[in-house]
Design goal:
The chain has helices at about 10, 40-55, 85-100, 115-130, 165-175, 205, 220-245; strands at about 20-25, 60, 105-110, 135-140. The chain is of the alpha/beta class. The chain has a single domain (about 5-245), classed as Creatininase (Rossmann fold), CATH 3.40.50.10310.
Length: about 250
């Protein structure tokens, strides 16, 4: 069920335990071959498929395309919200629907740079409503919601999602091949191990001159379809867990 297509009276009539999903992504460089809107295109398609599977069981807000992408600002075209502003934006989305009486809310993420501010937003909103025992506030990144992606197609070369990599490039190819330009000639870019297990502050030029991480030359539309199926399935499974939550337990 799509929020943008409902009237306010239809929203008012909903069970307040209906999960509300806020897809969030980004507009940022994706190497020399993929469109700036890659993260939003992919998140939008995954959310669309999940919404179609769930029907009236969950409410999906329109995709929020502006994300926290400061680490990509060396590359022209990238748009990024200031980190504190972005935390407040996400917090505001949650607060809006808490104010409308809804209790089960998910920030569904499609961009790695949103991970820290997104989790912070969920943390801060929960603290503001710390006396409530009936709130379920979640932040989930779509590629972390399933462990089946790496085996979803027999010819996938990369073990995990990178940036403008085989996986992302394949999914964009599945949506529209004309959006991807010259990916077959883009050289591989290793992920590396940047002082793990510590977390290093970085900008994309620290890692990649061309702005990608991975092996986009191996991408195919068929791999993209397989990835879309498994990722949208993982989103659906998470939302069904939200639906099944008993309203008070820690586990779900």
């Amino acid at each position: 069920m799509r929020l943008a297509e409902q009237t306010w009276t239809e929203i008012a009539a909903l069970d307040r335990d209906t999960p509300v999903v806020f897809p969030v992504a980004a507009l940022e460089q994706h190497g020399p071959h993929a469109p700036l809107f890659t993260d939003s295109l992919l998140m939008g398609e995954i959310a669309r498929r999940a919404e179609e599977r769930l029907g009236p069981a969950a409410l999906f807000a329109p995709l929020q395309w502006l994300g926290n992408s400061h680490h990509h600002l060396d590359f022209p075209g990238t748009l990024s919200a200031e980190p504190r502003l972005y935390i407040d934006l996400l917090s505001g989305l949650l607060e809006n629907f808490i104010g409308h009486g809804f209790r089960r809310l998910l920030l569904l993420n499609g961009h790695g740079g949103n991970d820290v501010p997104g989790k912070q937003a969920v943390f801060e909103v929960r603290q503001r409503h710390r006396q409530r025992k009936d709130l379920l506030l979640l932040f989930g990144t779509y590629w972390h919601l399933t462990d089946r992606a790496s085996g979803c197609h027999p010819d996938l070369r990369e073990p995990e999602l990178g940036h403008a990599c085989e996986w992302e490039t394949s999914m964009v190819l599945r949506l529209n091949p004309s959006w991807v330009k010259g990916f077959e000639k883009v050289p591989d870019q290793e992920r590396g191990r940047p002082f793990e297990p510590a977390s290093r502050g970085w900008t994309m030029p620290d890692r990649s001159v061309q702005g990608h991480v991975g092996e986009p030359r191996h991408a195919t539309p068929e791999k993209g379809e397989a990835l879309f199926q498994v990722f949208s399935g993982g989103v659906e499974e998470m939302i069904r867990r939200m639906i099944a939550w008993d309203g008070q337990s820690w586990n779900g």
